[in-house]
Give the backbone structure.
Amino acid sequence: MKYLDEFRDPEVALRLIDEINELASRRWVLMEVCGGQTHSIIRNGIDRLLPDSVEMVHGPGCPVCVTPLDTIDKALAIAARDDVIFCSFGDMLRVPGSDEDLFQVKGGGGDIRVVYSPTDALQIARENPDEEVVFFGIGFETTAPANAMAVYQAKQEGLENFSMLVSHVLVPPAMRAILDSPTNRVQAFLAAGHVCSVMGYEEYFAIAQEYGTPIVVTGFEPLDLLSGIKAAITQLEEGRATVENAYQRAVRREGNVPAKQMIADVFTTTDRNWRGIGPIPASGWELSERYRDFDAAARFPIGDIDTKESPLCHAGEVLQGTRKPDECPAFGKECTPRTPLGALMVSSEGACAAYYQYGRFAKAASS
């Protein structure tokens, strides 16, 4: 495919791998933050082609995977209401709550509809003025502009039957939480290119300087990732720690200024609990006071929720880079895409889903 195949050239990839091998004089541990990057690395076998001196661990960059369990349970309770049309992206439907998932609620009679953008949910609200329409607004900074625009439009149009259950999380605070952990092994990050295309990468300089950790903004194709890995290893070998942009065709330092302005108008920063990781201060967004009437959590108070995670699931360790999916004893056994114990096995960006889809069973089989 024009403009895409050039980033998948196997000869260039092998040359980059040779250069990385020559650069790495000791063992280095790198984390790709984004789940889309994880899938590309596993699908293309990049982690297996790299020298033994370079280890890739997988980060918390899957918004479906880190959506808090209590938020999932709230979504299930709201979706089960007779007066609600609940709209969600498709990859949320199989994410297990404490006792069931959205597919099961739908099977029990809930009006749950898969949409491809928040504007689809707005249209459903326009067409169903006598029904409450709730959109499940999850994601990192990447999906925030579209979700913010949907709430902005609803306010402009006076769509009083539209609301959003918001569970937005932010990448930089999660990176800090990983680096602050006593079990941290990460020595450099590959930052998510699509997040930086919205927010820019100015905020990452303070992290790189404070922790002495190189951060390289990368894309998702094999050559993007290998170029990012090479840049990170070069910094580590030279004893430098700064931010580099290896995805210049899509990312500018300042990001998308109009999108950031829309986000700043509609959302405000809040503490957020991350599934499998725990609370991270100032790591999420919620609707600002001006748009609080569109907050589904306030419109449909659920009360106390007793959340229950599976004791067999080690998703939190995978999300923090201290365990690989195939090192979990339940992987491919008790936990499969048909019987998921956690979100990482069913999300399209989940690390466990990538390992299962591309046949990485060796360590789990021997454990």
Notes: The mean pLDDT is 94. The chain has two domains: 1-298+309-315, 316-366. The radius of gyration is 21 Å.
